[in-house]
Amino acid sequence: MAYQTLIVEIEDYVALIRLNRPEALNALNSTLLGELADALAAADKNDKVRCIVITGSEKAFAAGADIKEMSEQSFVDMFTKNFFSTETDGILKTRKPVIAAVAGYALGGGCELAMMCDFIIAAENAKFGQPEINLGVVAGMGGTQRLTRFVGKSKSMDMHLTGRFMDAAEAERSGLVSRVVPLAQLLPEAMAAAHKIAEKSLMSTMVVKECVNRAYETTLAEGVHFERRIFYALFSTEDQKEGMSAFLEKREPQFRDR
Ligand code: CO8
């Protein structure tokens, strides 16, 4: 499917989704977020996709929600349209693993979109921020909640209250991103990680995602209970037998998603 604001390529079981509004530093408008939710739902259904990478340009992953689209809206407009809700709910429904490959600006909704992915790989020039305070508003796609869980209250308050940007080194130190690589290595590194994930049993990668995300939604005891139930359930699969036999037979496993 052709999109106005995205470029989607699928190769070797990895879908690469590029945000493509260079004229606005990939600012997130309703079209882009709607298309992204659609592309992710299609990738989730596609047997030729086992992992997804979302990226932007070298200058910007996304410089936030589109200020031009929002500036003249009233409270009633925002409330009655339920602005961005369907789109972000759609993005969050993705069951296959999603990696954010971030270069340049990931600000406001851009930082929030990166945090909705399963993990973030950053280029050395990445800059993260929640500068909504400079516009007289607050984060609205989960930034006050997710950034706080990633980096803790003190740094999250600092970012949201001052609107300052965090560079890639600070983002890695603070636990916001999993790895930092030179800009030229960003896509090769993210694609290599995605291909490694694509080699695993799809069921296992999907349940890893469910289990880790549970950590954000429940108590420790409930989360551990959920994980153990899933662990036991995986003993009903052929991939568990194959994975463990392959280890004992000193060979590579051949997973069949069964
Ligand atoms: N929205 C719309 N257009 C943008 C945005 C944006 N967020 N960011 C950049 N652009 C446009 C600029 O207007 C400019 O367009 P033009 O050439 O037509 O004037 C073009 O992109 C290039 O930008 P700059 O000339 O400003 O480039 P610089 O390199 O000088 O600066 C910055 C780059 C620092 C990234 C700067 O563009 C900037 O500060 N952008 C705004 C960052 C921002 O405030 N982001 C937060 C937006 S609010 C938000 O994200 C809320 C999310 C919650 C939504 C919740 C819904 C429920």
From TrEMBL:
Listed Pfam families: ECH_1
Coiled coil: none
One MF term in the entry's GO annotations: 3-hydroxyacyl-CoA dehydratase activity
Catalytic activity: a 4-saturated-(3S)-3-hydroxyacyl-CoA = a (3E)-enoyl-CoA + H2O; a (3S)-3-hydroxyacyl-CoA = a (2E)-enoyl-CoA + H2O
EC primary class: lyase
Biological-process GO terms, alphabetical: fatty acid beta-oxidation
Keyword Protease attached: no
EC number: 4.2.1.17
Keywords annotated in UniProt: Fatty acid metabolism, Lipid metabolism, Lyase
Keyword Lipid metabolism belongs to the record: yes
Annotated NCBIfam families: PRK05862.1
Protein role: Could possibly oxidize fatty acids using specific components.
PANTHER family membership: ENOYL-COA HYDRATASE, MITOCHONDRIAL (PTHR11941:SF54), ENOYL-COA HYDRATASE-RELATED (PTHR11941)
Annotated family: Belongs to the enoyl-CoA hydratase/isomerase family.
Name of the protein in question: enoyl-CoA hydratase
Organism from which the protein derives: Paenirhodobacter ferrireducens
